[in-house]
Design a protein that fits this description.
single chain; 850 residues
Amino acid sequence: MKRSVSWLLVLILVLASVTSGFALDLNTNQSVIAGEIISIPNVNDGETAWLAPEGATFSSLVEDGTTVTSAVYELGATEINIDVPTNVGEYKLYITDGSIILSEAAGILTATAPVAANQTVHIWVMDAVTDAALEGALVIFGNDISGYEELIAGVNGEVVIEAEYGVYELFVDKFGYESIEREVTVGESTNEQHITVSLNPVEVKDVTFRVLDGTTPVANAVVYIGNHGYTTDEFGEAALLLEYGDLGFDVVAEGYNDVNGIIPVTADTPEVVEVQMTKLIEGQYDVQAEFTIGSLKVRVTDENGSRIQTLSAPMLVKNGFAVIPARAFSEVYGFEVLWNADTKEMYLQKDGMEATFVHGSINFTFGPIDGEKQIFAADVAPYVLDGRSYLPIFDVIDKYPALKAIKNDPPAHTISLKFREADTQGNPTGNVIPGVSVIMDGHTIVTNAEGVATFVDVFGTPSYDESYITFTAIKSGYMTKTSEVLSNGTALFEIALVKSAPTSGSSGSSSGGSSGGGSTTPSTPALTPSLISDQVKTEGDKALNESLAKGQAATITLQNDKDNKAEVSATIITRLAEENKPILIQNKGVEIKFAPQSLVTPELKKALESKIGNLELGAKELTADETKDLIVKVTEGNTGLIEIGGKVFDLTAQIVSGTTVEKVKSFSEPVGITIDVSELKISEIAKLTGVRYVKNEDGSVKAVKLGGKYDAKNKTFTFFTDQFSLFGVMQAEELTKVELTIGQSDTIVNDTARYNDVAPVVMNNRTMVPVRFIVENLGGRVAWNETTKEISITLDGKELKMVINQPIEGFDANPTIVDNRTLVPLRYVSEALGANVLWFGESKRVEIVK
C-alpha cells in the first residue's frame, strides 16, 4: 500500500521523566540531540521507521546491516517512537512496509552531541560536636553512570567536585568518627552547591589481637578490620586502635583456615583478644580462588589442580570492600547467574541455594532456591560499571563452606610528586615549591627544597590492570589541589599548584578598642577579614565576625552577657546561610547549633525585605526554684518521665524592631541542643531524652519527648527541635525512636537497623510514611478491612480509622497504597498518633520520637 505523506517528526526530550516536544520539518536539514527519541505520527499498522546513515539505500539497510535503528508499529497505536543514535552524524528517515519504501524524508537529520550541565559542589566535613574541620576525611562521590571519585578533605575539611546534574552517592568516613552515606542531588538552582557533612565522634580503645595455634604464637598472620590489615609480630600479637561498636574481623595466615567474627568494642572489652587458628587441610575447599585487586588474573585451585584463569573484568574495591563482576561467579565458581530486568534482581544459584541481590540495595536474601530465605546486609550495594554488574564477593562466598575467596592487594609502588608554581591565571612560572603538605594513602609528607615529596610502598585505587592513587596538596598562598596519578611502579610526576588570588579587604588599620591616647596592643594580631566583615552592625555580628576571622565556627558566647541574649542582623544570617555556615550559641551548660538554613524563616525574610529588625537569640538557665516548680507540674501529669536533677534552659528566637517583638514560630531545619549532664547520676542511658516543656494557657505544662544521643566522652546530651521553648533532659519510662529516609527502605528503630519493605516518599509536596511500620514500632496495632478498604489503628487506648484514598479530617493528603503498604501524611503521625516528628530537609530524613 503506497501513499504520499508529509511527515512531521516530534522530538521527545526525555529528561527526569518529563516529556515535551516540538515539530521538525524534514523538508530541510534538522538537528536533534543524539540519544533522544523522535515520534512519527499518523502511521499504519505494520509499518516500520528506519534511521540510517545519509546515502544508505533500502537494500543496503536490510542486506548489509547498516541500519542504525528501527521500530515496528504496534496495533492500535497512532505513532512510532524510535531512538536517535547516540553517535553523532547525518541520517535519513525511511518509512517502509517491510519490503518497499513508502516514504523517504527529503531532509537530513543531524544528531548532535548533548551538552552536559555541570555544577561545582563544595563538601565540608566537620566534627558534629566541636564543628572543627576534619582534615584527611575520606570522601567518595559518584554514581554508576559517571563513576566514583575518592577524595581527601583538606585543612579546612573541604573537597571540591565538578559534577553533571543528577543524583549521586556520597560516602564520608574518618577514623574515630561514624561514617555517613547519603544521596545528593546536583541541580540547576545555583552555579555552586554547598554541602556540610557533620560526623559524630566515637569512642576508641586499644586492643591487642593475640593469634595462636594452641599455645604457639602465629607470626605474620594478618588481622583485617574493615579494609585495614595488621600483621602479627613474633609473639603472634598485633596492636590495634579500634572504634567503639560491633566490628567484624578476619584473621588470615598462610597454612591456616581463616577465622572471622565480630568483636563488640566497649569500655569493658578486654585489652587482649585471643584468636585460635586451625591448620588448613589440603583439598578442604571444592574451589579456592586467589584474586588480586585490579588484575584480570586469578589463581583457581579445584579438583583439577591449580591454574591461572583470566577474568572478563577484575576484582575492584568499592567503599573499602571487594567486589567482582557477576559473571566471575560463573567463570570461577560455577554459579548459575540469572537476571530479571523488570525487578532489577540478580540471582546467584549453586548447590540448591540462591542469593538474590537488587541493584542499589544493600540488603540481599539467601536460602534454598524454592524455600524460605533470610535477609542479610551486604558490605556494599550492587552497582553497574562499564556495562557490568558488580557484587560483593565475600557476602556470597562466605555462605558456602566448600568455597573460598582470597583477596590480595595490588603491588606497592614508590611515587614522587614534584610541585611547580603557576600564577593566578594558571600560567607556569617554573619555580619549584618547597613546604607543600601532600596527603596520600593516609600519610602526609612535606615537599623538600626541590619541591619533591616521595611516598614509598603506597597502593592505589585499582581500575582493571592499572592502579590510580589520589593525593591532596596543601600550602598557604596556593589553591588546594586534589587529583590522582597512575601508580605503575616507580614514577616521578610534576604537578602545578596555582597561586591563590589576593584576598580583598579594607586598607589601613583600626585600633578597635584603643583609648583616647591611641595606644595599641602589639601582641594581638590583626584579624583576617571574614566573609561577613562588610556587614557587621550589632554586637552579635561582631562576635560572629571575630570567630570566623580566627578560623573558627561562627559562634556567640552569652556567658558574660547579663541578659543572656544577642542580636544578629538579618543580612548576616542570610550571608552565613548562603555560605552554608552553621551558627553556634553558647552559654554555661548549653550549646545551640543552628544548621545553615535553620534561621532562614518567614519572620527573618520579612525583616530582611523591610530592612527593619534584628534577630535576637537567647539561652538562659532557669533558677533552681523555677526548675523545681516546672518539674513538679510535669511529673504531676503522669507523663512517664522521671526527673534526674537536670538543668532547664529557656531558649528564645525572635525578631526585634524597637518595641515590636515577633517570635520565630518554627525553624526551617531542626536545631541541635547540647546540654551538659556531667553532674547527673544516670542509671539508664538508653532511656535519656531531651524534653521540650510547653506551658498551656491553664498553667499546666506539657512535656514533649525529643529523644537524643548521649556523648560518654564529653558527658553531654544532644537532641533536636524545630521550635524554641523551655528545654531539659529527663529519663523516660518508655522511649521509642524511629528514623526514616525518603526513598530508602532501611530504617533505624532505637539505634538498631531495621528493614521496612516500603520506603517513605514525597507525593504532591507532602511526605508520606508507612503507617503500619510506624504504629507497630510505637507499640500499637493496625487492622485492615479488605472489603471497605478501611484501616483501624489502636494506640495508647485510642482507636483511629481511615479509608484508602478518602480524606482524613484536618489533613490535605489522603492515605494511599504503595507496594501493598498504606502511606499516610507525616503530619498525621504527629497530630493523630501523638509522636514528635522532625523533618531534616537537607538529608531528607524523618525522626519520630514517642
